[in-house]
Design goal:
Seminal Fluid Protein  PDC-109 (Domain B), mainly beta, 4-stranded mixed beta sheet, single chain, 159 residues, 2 domains, Fibronectin type-II domain-containing protein, elongated, Kringle-like, two-stranded antiparallel ribbon
């Protein structure tokens, strides 16, 4: 349809197959195939401003094209130079404080993909930095996966 457009307003359509940036954001993050990531993008009702590992078996990805609503239309795996945010799947296990456990997380140089046993209590990360290092933790609920070996940095007694 021919709609009147205010001459003072510039309209830039977002075409699903053409990566488009939102004003003020850059796409200095290349996907592994060389395409540029587009931030922010919308995926299942959540906006992402960094690469996410949700619903991709732990591999970080980004949108390389979006719909006119900003929904990820095409995606690719992110290169190592891209900013990342660890995202818990909606089905992720809860910590006892109500936060969700984040996997993998790094504690004292060791990468964990399950709750870790420290002095008989199982812990997980509830917040990590961009390199997956633990920032905050919680006690794992009984529904969380558990690593039954004792962490190497703790002293324990075997009965």
């Amino acid at each position: 349809p021919n709609c009147p457009v205010d001459q003072a307003t510039t309209v830039t359509p977002i075409v699903p197959t053409t990566p488009t940036l939102r004003p003020g954001l850059s796409n200095n993050c290349p996907a592994i195939d060389g395409n540029s990531c587009i931030f922010p993008f919308l995926y299942e009702g959540v906006f992402y401003e960094k690469c996410t590992n949700i619903d991709n078996f732990g591999t970080y990805w980004c949108a390389i094209s979006v719909t006119e609503d900003g929904e990820a239309f095409e995606y690719r795996d992110c290169s190592d130079s891209c900013p990342r945010e660890t995202t818990v799947s909606k089905a992720g296990c809860p910590a006892m404080n109500g936060d969700r456990c984040l996997f993998p997380f790094i504690l004292d140089g060791v990468t964990y993909d399950k709750c870790t046993n420290i002095a008989g209590t199982f812990y997980c990360a509830t917040e990590v930095n961009s390199k997956d290092k633990l920032k905050s933790y919680g006690v794992c609920s009984s529904s969380c996966p558990r690593d039954t070996t004792l962490a190497s940095n703790v002293c324990g007694t075997v009965n």
